[in-house]
């Protein structure tokens, strides 16, 4: 009984310091290094605390806890006692070792799921919330390969690339860790409640925020810092020029982690962030094996034909075969024939099927089979939509039965 009371008293001290307004993690770590555990820090005089850090930190430590602190402590202790939940303080042997190499590791972590995953070699797979279909497929495929190779896949449970990365890793053999920007008892975005449950059961969810903390914009750069600190490398799949994923990559680079990026079309807005990172020194990768080799993980690289066959087999099959639509013979653009022609008028809206197909096309060359799987359109509707998009200049047919969006100058800016 005494040990239980002592453990609860230690958690109370940790919680009081982590929730002290104005006490930064770096200052707290300095105090812990000077005086020992939180109970010892709380027992120091103002002068002693200020001498080690500064007066503002000393005032924060010695300030009386809020009126609701007892209720918060009771909630934390009750949450900790739920099977599968754990509280990890800086002095806990189960605390993730890579986070201890950060200058400001969180003093208290809330974890749901498998603690062992926090001690494995890992790679972050992150990217845009507004992922293209191709980007989501790449994130899922790479993450599945990483998981099968023994790497834990870490991401931020956001929409788009993050969600695809988690799902890909869950289909592999190792698992995934979701680092979130809310309290561990809050699901954000709400649509990810089923995914959150699956990760808690077969992976781990990690948060540094007190229970009940809602999603706030300022929390996500903090979450990105934690993702960068937890892993051996970071893969950026898709990112705009001002993406939070680039923050993760920059922080990872500052911490000495490897940074990788997938290239894309020069016309794709979500490739620009990746290209920027490559220009700044990120490693350009084209296959999961590129990342695995850099991280010193064993690979079983298959011949290109086998890889292509495996990719095709992993996509949902449709009944029957899809015929290639006929190639349209288009006249030369009027602008090339008569330079005095006035500017083109805005295009009318596309029919729903054509717009659906264009959204599924993304910015990379795509085969008819992939488009059929993404849209679930029947053969007749698919051929009709492809022909309409080609005739209207929205897409271009390439050799080998592939299709790509028309260049921005030909289509999107018209």
Automatic annotation (TrEMBL):
It comes from the Bacteria. Residues 88-295 form the Smf/DprA SLOG domain. Residues 342-401 form the DprA winged helix domain. Transmembrane segments: none annotated. Pfam families: DNA_processg_A, WHD_DprA. Signal peptide: none annotated. InterPro entries: DprA, DprA_WH, DrpA_SLOG, WH-like_DNA-bd_sf. Gene3D superfamilies: 3.40.50.450, Winged helix-like DNA-binding domain superfamily/Winged helix DNA-binding domain (1.10.10.10). Residues 303-330 are annotated as: Disordered. PANTHER family: PROTEIN SMF (PTHR43022). Belongs to the DprA/Smf family. NCBIfam families: dprA. This is DNA-processing protein DprA. It comes from Paraburkholderia edwinii.
